[in-house]
Structure formats: structure tokens, C-alpha cells
Specification:
The protein is an all-beta fold and about 170 residues long. The protein has one domain (about 15-150): Beta Complex (Metal Binding Protein, Guanine Nucleotide Exchange Factor, Chain A). About 0% of the residues lie in helices and about 45% in strands. It contains no helices and 15 strands. The strands form four sheets. It has a seven-stranded antiparallel sheet with strand order 2-5-6-10-9-8-7, with no helix packed on it. A four-stranded antiparallel sheet has the order 4-3-11-12, with no helix packed on it. It has a two-stranded parallel ribbon with strand order 1-15. Strand 5 (about 50-55) and strand 6 form a beta hairpin.
Length: about 170
């Protein structure tokens, strides 16, 4: 069976194509205004996030742990392994009366190329009431497994839809 790369959408002015992102992923600083709301409460806000950019995926934002309100993050069981970043640990996110179970993750000891994400948390935007980037409401990356943040500044197609696991 021959695997084919899908036909990338053409980016317009001010847009990025996820098909121009590298593999292994690139890590870069972001100074976008990021806000996360859960249970009707702002649980995190920062202008000092990191973005992980990987071929076929919308950006995953890693927010400093220090930008979360006290009590918004609670350790959760289990973990996963990323071939690039290392061993991940999961967190519950709490906001108001809402608990988003295992909706965030971090790398306690990331691999050297990704050392900057230590003390940073990524989360599934679809598990939150709302995540925004510079005021724009984020759409969750399709498929439920990945934590990409889809905004109008990025075009796909994105990994996560049915039939995309072989990309």
C-alpha cells in the first residue's frame, strides 16, 4: 500500500499551512494573548506561551504552569510517550464547579531539544469552555486524540479526521 500525502490547502495572506511545519516538530515562542475558560472561570491567561509545530497538525500551545490560577491543575493518573518530547504526565483542569478530567498534559523531564516546555502545560481545547488566541475562539483539532488549536491563521487538512491516521 502506498501512502500519499494529502493535497495541502493553500494559505491566504497571514496564514500558515500545517504542511509547511517540520518533522520532528519545531518549538517556538509565542506572544499571542492566550486565554482558557473552564466552568465559566478564566483558569489561565498568558502572552508567553510556546507553540509546537508538527507536519499535518495545528499548533499545540504550551502555557506556563505559573499562568494558571491556583488550584486549576490537579495531577491525574497515567501518562503517554512522545517520540520527540519524551514521557508525558496528565492533569485534570478545574474551573468553577467543572472538572475536565485528564484534559491537560506536561513533560516533567522533556528531551533536550524540547527542554523549554518543562514547567509548561498543553491542554485539549475541546475539553474547555473556550480557548482564545488573540481573542479568536479556537476550534479543537479533529479526532479527540491530538491537542492542536485550530484558528483562522492555519490551514490543513489536519491529521485527526477519519482516514488520516496513516499520514
Amino acid at each position: 500500500m502506498t501512502l500519499r500525502r494529502p493535497t495541502p490547502d493553500r494559505p491566504g495572506p497571514g496564514q500558515e499551512s500545517v504542511w509547511d511545519y517540520p518533522r520532528p516538530p519545531r518549538l517556538e515562542r509565542s506572544h499571542f494573548d492566550i486565554e482558557v475558560v473552564l466552568g465559566g472561570v478564566v483558569v489561565a491567561r498568558t502572552q508567553d506561551a510556546l507553540r509546537v509545530l508538527e507536519t499535518s497538525h495545528p499548533p499545540t500551545f504550551y502555557l506556563p504552569m505559573s499562568c494558571f490560577v491556583t488550584g486549576a491543575l490537579r495531577p491525574a493518573g497515567g501518562g503517554s510517550f512522545c517520540e520527540w518530547k519524551g514521557q508525558a504526565a496528565y492533569l485534570h483542569v478545574l474551573g468553577g464547579e467543572t472538572v475536565a478530567a485528564r484534559a491537560a498534559w506536561y513533560y516533567p523531564t522533556p528531551t533536550p531539544p524540547y527542554a523549554a516546555i518543562a514547567d509548561h502545560v498543553a491542554l485539549y481545547p475541546g475539553a474547555m469552555d473556550r480557548c482564545t488566541v488573540d481573542g479568536e475562539v479556537v476550534r479543537a483539532q479533529p479526532g479527540g486524540f491530538y491537542g492542536g488549536w485550530v484558528t483562522s491563521s492555519v490551514v490543513g487538512p489536519f491529521k485527526g479526521d477519519p482516514g488520516t491516521m496513516s499520514w
